[in-house]
Amino acid sequence: MGKKGAAAPAALQGPAALKGRSSLQFSLLHFALQPSNLLTDRMAVPPCYADLGKSAKDIFNKGYGFGLVKLDVKTKSASGVEFKTSGSSNTDTSKVVGSLETKYKRSEYGLTFTEKWNTDNTLGTEITIEDQIAKGLKLTFDTTFSPNTGKKSGKVKTAYKREYVNLGCDVDFDFAGPTIHGAAVVGYEGWLAGYQMSFDTAKSKMTQNNFAVGYKTGDFQLHTNVNDGSEFGGSIYQKVSDKLETAVNLAWTAGSNSTRFGIAAKYQLDKDASISAKVNNTSLVGVGYTQTLRPGVKLTLSALVDGKSINAGGHKLGLGLELEA
Questions:
Q1: Which of left, alpha, beta for 204 (phi over 0: left; psi -120 to 50: alpha)?
Q2: What pLDDT does 43 receive?
Q3: pTM score, two decimals?
Q4: For residue 236, pLDDT beyond 50
Q5: DSSP string, 265-298
Q6: What is the pLDDT of residues 98-132, one digit of tens each?
Q7: What are the residues whose beta carbons fall under 8 Å from the beta carbon of 89, sequence distance 6 or more?
Q8: Distance between CA atoms of 7 and 260, rounded to whole angstroms?
Q9: Please, are residues 52 and 185 in contact by the beta-carbon 8 Å criterion?
Q10: Closest Cα partner for 131 from 116, 150, 110, 115?
Q11: 8-state DSSP, 134
Q12: What is the rounded CA–CA span in Å between residue 76 and residue 20?
């Protein structure tokens, strides 16, 4: 005789028990096969070198426009052509600058055509081909021309990204000789390492030699870098909650006894409004307020206060309006 309370073999169990077990097994199998729960060694494509530490940079830079009155307008035609117009006035110098950009995409061919013009009377044309020659490969041909001075320039940019690696190589053409810019970032299990260089073929000289190391998770990012062996920097980003994001950055130059640092935060008041604040070691305090007035209309107000000389003046205000349709 079996022990009291022991489970009966599956063949002797009732239909209800078998049905319950089948449902449980199906639920476990369904959970295990979800893409988010599969255990794989695949990692998302790491960012390009310029985007390392981007989350911390955004907390320090976005939502501010000190000393500027700025207007940005984005529209899209029925044929798919995108227009971006931007204009700003510097409250200190009263200088007004503007730019116009048109972009047309042919997604089926991986092509993007971009035309640019600014108030310095510089014309630019950019053609991009992505994921056509090879998966993950992006080629960009960029040219600029200034009718006033007759100056011309051209760049060929290449970028290749796959799991664990993001590579880039740009060639900046010049009559004296092209300049080659290269960058590489590798990532594994949240760790990131990158290298960036520039080589002037006319002078046969390395003009840029940068290294970076970082660690990235869903709500935390750490980034450190060394530029040309003399500039040292680092940043920390943390998403404390769904509404609060914070960032800290540090910088130090070899041969200098002073360390530059800053602290910044962004708080989402509600789905349409957010407030930002930052302060650095020179007692410059910046605050910003962003409000979505209605879908496609965003207002930004900002102010920069010199904490060391509050009564002396020289503080800056900023106003920005973004329209999108």
A1: left
A2: 56
A3: 0.80
A4: yes
A5: EEEEEETTEEEEEEEETT-EEEEEEEEEEETTEE
A6: 999 999 999 899 999 999 999 999 999 999 999 99
A7: 68, 69, 70, 95, 96
A8: 69
A9: yes
A10: 110
A11: S
A12: 55
